[in-house]
Amino acid sequence: MAATEEPQAIAGPERRGELFTTISGVEVAPLATPETAKTDYDRDLGAPGEFPFTRGVYPSMYRGRLWTMRQFAGFGTAEETNERFHYLLEHGQTGLSTAFDMPTLMGYDSDHPRSLGEVGREGVAVDTVDDMEVLFDGIPLDEVSTSMTINAPAAILLAYYVLVGERQGISPEKLSGTIQTDILKEYIAQKEWCFPVEPAMRLVTDMVEYCTDHMPRWHPISISGYHIREAGATAAQELAFTLKNGFTYVERAIERGIDVDDFAPRLSFFFNAHIDFFEEIAKYRAARRIWARELKETYGAKKPESMRLRFHTQTAGVSLTAQQPLNNIVRTAIEALAGVLGGTQSLHTNSFDEALALPTEEAVRVALRTQQIISHETGVTNTADPLGGSYFVEALTDELEAEAYDYFRRIDEFGGMVEAVRQNFPQREIGEAAFTFQRELDDGERTIVGVNRYQHEEEEVPLLHIDPALEQVQVERLRKTKSERDSAEVEATLAELKRAAEGDANLMYPIIECARARVTEGEMIEAMQEVFGTYTETPVF
Amino acid sequence: MSAVAEPKIDHKIRVVVAKPGLDGHDRGAKIIARALRDSGMEVIYTGLHQTPEQIAETVIQEDADAIGVSILSGAHMTLVPKIVELLEAQGVDDVLITVGGTIPTKDIEALKEMGVSGVFTPGSPTDEIVEFIRNGVTRDREL
Predict the structure, then answer these.
(1) Which end of chain B is more exposed for a tag (fewer CB within 10 A), N or C?
(2) Would the CB atoms of B123 and A541 count as touching at under 8 Å?
(3) pLDDT (0 to 100) of residue A53
(4) Which residues on chain B are in Cβ contact (under 8 Å) with A460?
(5) Which residues make beta-bridge pairs with A222?
(6) Which residue of B has its CA nearest to A432?
(7) Which whole number is the average pLDDT over A287-316?
(8) Exposed, middle or buried by CB within 10 Å (0-12, 13-18, 19+), for A17?
(9) What global pTM score does this model have?
(10) Which of B33, B73, B105 sits opposite A122 (nearest CB)?
């Protein structure tokens, strides 16, 4: 922490050989005092539900409503994932979250040569609207909110969802949920892309516009720090790059002529909950304060809803160890508690076996129970922002905020985030942080229990096995859809999509028409790539 | 870096760090690439989303002594055999093959049987990987 004017405030022996820094490398003072945190209550904190929302976005926080317990799920074909969805809802989960497989994330159909061996492996395979219908079979889309983790092809999956709603007799304005769509963090960290940056940004803005006009309960972008952190970023980098990405989407939508108060309330965030407990809580609090201030002062928002940063949290996958996997239950519980004390609106807790494979039902149930224990047994939900006013937490919040503004300035020197991404700036910063952390670990300056200390012989845990035959099942279903559809309609809608891509019309409408004609995801992506081109990273290490 | 055994060859070791498959998890690959480079090896990092064909081609073009395949997508039992086959088909039999990533125990044996020399799962210290490659490369480069 920067404010260490009075380090003599405590004196005493300290353990040797241990780093007294956060996991991100921030120096921590041995004791925080009123001098450490120079907080002005009205300016810096405010009541929960009031500007600048540092203490939370709602006045009564969890007394009013608990966070949404939303476990990310997806594997195999749509049938397997649909079954897992029903399992989770039966066990008290309150929202759905869909993981798509790698080919779907990259815009390849299941029968594409590049998809071989990857279909249904790390998520569910979705090629056409028919798959989407199976995925949400028996789930009333006007009652259950759904989150979909997909970015480069997000517009296509949203179109499928709208059509599934239509087939269930539910109009787009009644659908509620979130689609990730955060393409900037793909180039920065998750690395699943289809197009160059500029046309990808156009697609994002097209979706924001479409949702503003037709889907008032839908969050068209979930601005995500999660993957940035998983790639090795520090807490400050996660905070800074995520918020800067958010500002960039806001700027694009304003340039499009959309009133900031018409879309900003539907932007949401997605943060990591890493293992450094207080640093994470401070990160969420700083994020709310920065977002509120910038939306109001820089982007001219008038409505308080536009200034409220609402976020989903997922515990840190990267903190899980393959060694002694049951220890991961403890890690996840602590991380989840940080998310709750930081005021999250929804939460995914990782399963203890996820460093080894996709989770079994038992492991997922323990993860969900962890949230239920926090919410119903620990009492932490009784009061809003229970750590507000802690000298240490307030000082750490200020520190993270200052670090974020420092990054904003450096990114602006590139001419903004798009240019900084093109020049690999955030990528390089993250790579550096990841390497530093690994070196500290290798040198024994940092401890990961069971990995570089307290190792012992392993016991095997049962793992989820994904039947490789499912790939063939999915390829067959795709063939069936292709053989049944009207090929003239397919060609006509695809031609229209290409024409629209060449001009500047909103692409959501031709994409919906393609989806209705049962055009595949891969066919739509290829059509747009003929106009937009593709993206190749220049890797830095 | 801890004490290093005398290298068995007299040229600078050339390693291809490869990312096959569609996933974008390149944190590990980049850390390893950098650690290998810092230890004095020449490192060629392929970048993301490479096909087995592209990877085999890179190994041959770069006249590599070793290859480190980083894979976290669960597709290792499809992609690694493909890379091994392609190298064999081109008559390449003296390149040290290593694999890193989330590889279940039961697959490790299978990978070794098909010609992979070392498999490194999450939590492996980077020094251990560097030394494995340094000690494993026995090939004389044809100059």
Answers:
(1) C
(2) no
(3) 98
(4) 105
(5) A268
(6) B31
(7) 98
(8) exposed
(9) 0.94
(10) B73
